[in-house]
């Protein structure tokens, strides 16, 4: 009978490329299958430390710091991962709009969270094992979109591609195009919205003390001055950026209870009308551009309001 090797604690030195990264984002990058709740428990019980001291999930790391990591892979049991039901397996596979040896692209529905958290048990992260296909490992998250935003979510199929994509998203080497239906017609058909964003409680606000935030906006169609269909391209990656920027210029996105003016359109679905429509990955994978069809409720809203989406 052979000897069983005991799992070993790792001491990892933070790389220059990860300088300034929050601790939770670091674990998302290098341990994408570790549930957030499990990470929080490991921090709470002081099993994860930075330079020998207790760390918080939002701690910003500095290059050269020493990160103590317990044997995480052995601690993520099948129970903690959650067994994927046949229904969930079929559901997550139905979201796939593109797949090759490097990546998988999903068309995420509105209302489905990317990762778990307080009172969030059903999420993309918990179903990734069903997307292994011919690979031995599950794909990895490399970015996120809001729970209520629908559309494109890119997954890396191995660690190498996860590192490449994570860096590309961080450095804004990837062009993303969103479609939104907004209240009123913007004053200009095209504009760059330059408004720094700052976290204030549970919301983001425009503040001169915030981080630089840039979004491109173009009107695609409108119905008088009542509503407009717009194309949005974020040039920075702040939380809720597009939603706050559209509120800031006086044209909140329809169905946005957090940043809208709560005007109700009784003849359309009460859902956030923001969709991650297209992603251009040509800077990484030659000539690769992927689109995700609009959800049914979004198409119904366009028909009801007399709006048309041109070829973009």
Explain how this protein is built:
- The protein is α+β, with helices and mostly antiparallel strands and 312 residues long.
- It has three domains: 10-73, RNA-binding S4 domain (Structural Genomics Hypothetical 15.5 Kd Protein In mrcA-pckA Intergenic Region, Chain A), CATH 3.10.290.10; 83-170, 2-Layer Sandwich (Pseudouridine synthase); 175-305, Pseudouridine synthase (2-Layer Sandwich), CATH 3.30.2350.10.
- 21% of the residues lie in helices and 26% in strands.
- It is built from eight helices and 16 strands.
- It has helices at 23-30, 36-44, 72-75, 78-81, 86-94, 159-170, 241-248, 296-305; strands at 10-13, 49-50, 53-54, 66-69, 96-99, 103-108, 140-141, 150-156, 175-183, 190-194, 197-200, 203-206, 214-223, 227-234, 274-280, 289-291.
- The strands form three sheets. Strands 5, 6, 7, 8, 9, 10, 13, 14, 15 and 16 form a ten-stranded mixed sheet that branches. A four-stranded antiparallel sheet has the order 1-4-2-3, with no helix packed on it.
- The longest helix has 12 residues, at 159-170.
- The termini are far apart.
- The relative contact order is 0.12.
- Mean pLDDT is 88; it is low at 1-7 and 74-82.
